């Protein structure tokens, strides 16, 4: 997919998003949180928002399955667990 899929924005189409894209996005966000660039809550909000949007896309028949339905990292306080 490349950088568009990894960032989950830009010109990537819904049908082109993969589980690997979701994992890459989550890993980038986790790295940013561990580096103190983002709060763990911000990362959690970003991941949950994308998962909910992709659930809606499944319900609307835009995609067959939600690639974000995988187990994502958990974020507690400032600790990021992958």
Nutshell version of this structure?
This protein has 82 residues and is mostly helical.
List low-confidence stretches: 1-6, 78-82
What kind of assembly state do the chains in view correspond to? single chain
What percent of residues are in strands?
5-15%
Number of helices: 3
Order of helices and strands: HHHEE
- Inertia-based shape: elongated
Give the class from helix and strand content and strand pairing.
Answer: mainly alpha
Q: Average pLDDT across residues?
A: 79
**Rounded Rg:** 13 Å
How do the strands of the widest beta sheet line up side by side? 1-2
Share of residues in helices: 40-55%
Q: Largest sheet at a glance? A: 2 strands, antiparallel
Key words describing this protein structure:
single chain; 82 residues; mainly alpha; two-stranded antiparallel ribbon; 2 strands; elongated; disordered N terminus; disordered C terminus
Helix and strand topology:
Elements: H1 3-7, H2 19-34, H3 40-59, E1 74-76, E2 79-81
């Amino acid at each position: 997919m490349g950088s568009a899929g990894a960032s989950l924005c830009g010109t990537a189409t819904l049908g082109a998003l993969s589980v690997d894209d979701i994992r890459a996005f989550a890993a980038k966000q986790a790295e940013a949180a561990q580096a103190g660039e983002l709060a763990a809550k911000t990362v959690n909000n970003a991941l949950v928002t994308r998962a909910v949007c992709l659930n809606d896309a499944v319900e609307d028949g835009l995609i067959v399955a939600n690639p974000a339905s995988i187990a994502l990292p958990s974020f507690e306080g400032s600790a990021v667990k992958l």
